[in-house]
Design goal:
Blueprint (H helix, E strand, L loop, with lengths): L38 E8 L11 H6 L14 H16 L20 E8 L8 E8 L8 E6 L10 H10 L3 E5 L8 E2 L5 E2 L5 E2 L17 E2 L1 H4 L8 H19 L12 E7 L1 H10 L8 E5 L11 H15 L12 H18 L7 H15 L3 H6 L1 H5 L2 H13 L11 E6 L5 E2 L3 H4 L2 H4 L9 E5 L11 H11 L3 H12 L10 E7 L11 H10 L3 E7 L12 H4 L6 H16 L9 E3 L11 H4 L8
Parallel strand pairs: 4-5, 4-10, 10-11, 11-15, 15-16, 16-17
Antiparallel strand pairs: 1-2, 2-3, 3-5, 6-9, 7-8, 12-13, 12-14
């Protein structure tokens, strides 16, 4: 599939200040609505051996495979839980390998002393709160007020954007506000009746962050994203807006003599990657005067009228293990032998089910590959998607999102999926207190991982119907059953609309993104936004995939460059324009970087577009 801009994006090839981005007739946005009430306020100091950005760990400890220890394995202190959460968030998002460039070529890892404020927030109509947190550095300049607002990527916990927004904003002396956007790692153990408190420590009672509605009715693990009953993706924009409002209230408390902090006197930037980038674009469509500019990296964003990403996720879960056999030179991990064995088995299963054509494995693989190509996955996206296929991420994502879209409670998934702790033999069973104590800090928000496994209760692994669970997940996105209509209604609620006119936006996406394919997301969103008069720039980055953290593997850094440098560069250019209007906003670019392989990353490897004066 060609990576050239399609005809529908010709307008995107023009600068932001062209007629395509005219805002002369933009209607004035409405002011912010009354700020919500935030509950379970906490304020903590982080100075000396602790800090806001790295919890005092520094680069060596962040690189370590050994998590920061808990003095008592089953009862971490709030400080210990926080430190491990920051360690886990950095490692899950950024490429911290020696020579990878973080902290040298781009980004900052310098310790930042300051204060944190945290609370629970709740969007109207939601059954459960989302976490909000604000980091206020001691270097905050009251004369040049700035607030960076971010949502966690994926379904991560409250520190899930610290490597993005924290690294850029705290280094500039800005306060940084975060939201877990209604997902996060507040798992609830249904066997022990134990959840997580506001400070990140496990508890069986009190103001827990998440308790499922029917906690007494079943067993296993309840995951907030899947089982809250709220379809948080539909409210991502409002989650981000509430984080902004919490940031203003936190600054009022931190600097009462300088209060009030408002959108009129405090510069505010929204930034996020992946699901966090999707939240930024959803906030951009709100008709309120809240943000000065937005930067969205590899955003998970679906546009009304186009196939939703859920359709591609379920199709990939079903077909990709087989389709990958039709491609050569796949990145590793997963090991090639493992992928070949799994793919051969899947091809045979698909042929028996009538999902692919062909009398041999090679023909069946070509059939599966063709179907995914027609769905919008380029060969580059398929290669990068090998990681998700090899580690069964597609199925886990589909099970979690379908439960969320349908607002199913724990134990009620129509395809029988749920989550459980795993014993030493890998089989579902009760969790130990020590395992339970790690979930808030290390959980990704979408198991499997950290001792929690995905359980298929529909007998999908039986010899008679090996694909039953995957086909059921796919049917929820395209069938006509009551459950399918219920899931599709939730998907429709999460579709993005055009942003408000006049708001500067930069969208950045890797052309080889294998998890959130560019052809199905940003390539569709940007024309929608521009046709509505958006002031938007679009950076498409060749040789970039979804997970910067995968560049820790030699085979990945031979093929790909990190995406975070482009997010930071876009923030720099937007900031400079807001400081000096003579400096232009970013303009569209198809970027041609050079992967570093085993050499240290240099700035010229990245080919970052330069801003120009107007």
């Amino acid at each position: 599939m060609s990576h050239l801009l399609p005809a529908s994006l010709l307008c995107a090839a023009l600068p932001l200040l062209s007629a395509c981005a005219s805002v002369a007739d933009a209607a004035p946005p409405r002011p912010l609505a009354a700020s919500p009430v935030f509950e379970q306020w906490r304020e903590t100091l982080h100075r000396g051996s602790d800090d806001l950005l790295t919890a005092g760990l520094g680069i060596d400890a962040l690189r370590s495979n050994n998590a920061p220890p808990f003095a008592a394995a089953a009862q971490p202190t709030a400080d210990e839980a926080r430190r491990r959460a920051i360690w886990s968030s950095w490692r899950g998002i950024a490429d911290l390998t020696p020579g990878g460039g973080f902290g040298e070529v781009y980004g900052s890892l310098q310790g930042v002393p300051g204060r944190e404020f945290s609370a629970y927030a709740r969007v109207p109509g939601a059954r459960h709160p989302h976490r909000v947190l604000v980091q206020v550095p001691d270097t905050f300049d009251g004369a040049r007020r700035c607030l960076v607002v971010a949502a966690s990527s994926g379904s991560r916990g409250i520190y899930g954007a610290v490597a993005v927004a924290g690294s850029w904003g705290l280094a500039r002396g800005c306060a940084v506000a975060y939201t877990d956007k209604g997902a996060g790692s507040d798992y609830y153990d249904l066997d022990a009746r134990a959840g997580v408190q506001a400070d990140g420590t496990p508890a069986t009672e009190g103001a827990l962050a998440f308790v499922p509605a029917d906690a007494m009715a079943t067993r296993g693990i309840a995951v907030k994203h899947a089982h809250s009953g709220d379809n948080p993706e539909a409210d991502w924009g409002r989650h981000l807006l509430q984080a902004l409002q919490f940031g203003q209230q936190a600054l009022d408390r931190a600097y009462p003599r300088a209060a009030p902090f408002t959108n009129a006197n405090t510069r505010t930037l929204g930034v996020g990657v992946s699901n966090g980038g999707g939240a930024v674009l959803r906030a951009a469509e709100l008709d309120v005067d809240a943000f000065d500019a937005m930067v969205a990296g590899e955003p998970n964003v679906s546009v009304a009228g186009a196939p939703p990403l859920y359709e591609v996720v379920t199709q990939s879960a079903l077909l990709m293990p087989c389709a990958l056999l039709a491609l050569e030179d796949l990145p590793q991990p997963p090991p090639q032998a493992q992928a070949t064995q799994a793919g051969t088995t899947r091809c045979a299963q698909l042929r028996a089910a009538g999902e692919v054509q062909g009398d041999d494995t090679a023909a069946q693989a070509r059939s599966a590959r063709q179907q995914l190509a027609e769905a919008g996955l380029s060969d580059g996206a398929l290669r990068a998607g090998a990681f998700a296929a090899g580690f069964d991420l597609w199925r886990a994502i589909a099970a979690t999102y379908s439960s969320s879209y349908g607002r199913y409670s724990v134990g009620a998934h129509p395809c029988g999926y749920g989550f459980s702790a795993a014993g030493a033999d890998g089989r579902p069973g009760p969790a130990t207190a020590g395992l339970r104590a790690t979930w808030w800090s290390e959980g990704s928000g979408i198991p499997p991982g950290n001792g929690v496994v995905l359980v298929d209760g529909s007998a999908a692994s039986s010899a008679e119907q090996p694909l039953r669970g995957l086909e059921c997940l796919r049917g929820l996105g395209r069938g006509d059953s009551p459950d399918a209509r219920r899931v599709r209604a939730g998907i429709a609620e999460a579709a993005a609309k055009a942003p408000r006119r006049g708001l500067p936006i930069v969208v950045i996406h890797g052309v080889d993104d294998g998890l959130v394919p560019i052809d199905l997301t940003s390539d569709r969103y940007v024309p929608l936004a521009r046709s509505a008069g958006a002031r938007i720039a679009y950076w498409r980055v060749n040789h970039a995939q979804h997970f910067d953290s995968l560049l820790a593997f030699p085979d990945y850094r031979k093929r790909y460059v990190p995406l975070l440098p482009y997010v930071f560069a876009a923030l720099d250019q937007v900031w400079n324009h807001l400081e000096d209007a003579a400096l232009a906003l970013p303009q569209d670019a198809l970027i041609q970087p050079t992967p570093r392989a085993e050499a240290p990353l240099r700035h010229d490897h990245l080919s970052i577009p330069t801003a120009v004066s107007r």
